[in-house]
Each structure stands twice: as C-alpha cells, then as structure tokens.
Amino acid sequence: MKTLIVGNRPLNSNIIDLAKEKLIIAADGGADRLLKHNITPDCVVGDFDSISDKSATKSEEWLVSNKNISISIFLVICL
C-alpha cells in the first residue's frame, strides 16, 4: 500500500487525487490541511502543538465512533 504523509504546509489542488487509495498520515497541523479538503487522515502523529482545536475535536469524534482501534495519545492517533 502506498502512503501519503502530510505536514503543515500548503497543499496543491490535486491533493484529493493524490490521497486516493493511500494510507494517509498527518503530522500535527497537516490534519488541518487535509480536513480543509474533506480528507480524514488514517493517522495523526506528532506532539500536537500545531493541530487546531477543531481538527483535534473532529479526530476525537471519529475515534469515539470507531472504538475498535487502539491509540497512544501522546505519540500517535490512528483513525
């Protein structure tokens, strides 16, 4: 499986096509960048100092509805 890793940098308009059929990992604020394009990352990694409250809340809501996964809050949130 191919993987797309997104950091907190501006994304090109083709990000939606790039994300298709890939494991998507967001590093901190990269989650915000992806969610602006309606792309939910499979994992969010980092120290979470640059992720917005809105993205963190969206990730938490997703986690609550998908309780069958395990997480380590301080290192990785896998959605």
Question: Could you characterize the architecture of this molecule?
Answer:
30% of the residues lie in helices and 19% in strands. The chain is of the alpha/beta class and 79 residues long. It has a four-stranded mixed sheet.
One letter per element, helices H and strands E, the order comes to: EHEHEHE
Number of extended strands: 4
Shape: globular
Low-confidence stretches: 64-77
For the record, give the distance between the C-alpha atoms at the N and C termini, rounded to a whole number. Answer: 17 Å
**Share in helix:** 25-40%
Radius of gyration: 12 Å
What about the largest sheet?
4 strands, mixed
Q: Structural class of the secondary structure composition?
A: alpha/beta
Continuous helix count: 3
Strand order across the largest sheet: 1-2-3-4
The average pLDDT score comes to 77
Oligomer status: single chain
Strand content: 15-25%
What is the secondary structure topology, with strand pairs?
Layout: E1 3-6, H1 15-19, E2 23-27, H2 30-35, E3 43-45, H3 53-65, E4 76-78
Parallel strand pairs: 1-2, 2-3
Antiparallel strand pairs: 3-4
Task: Provide a concise account of the structure shown.
The protein contains three helices and four strands, in the order E-H-E-H-E-H-E. It has helices spanning 15-19, 30-35, 53-65; strands spanning 3-6, 23-27, 43-45, 76-78.
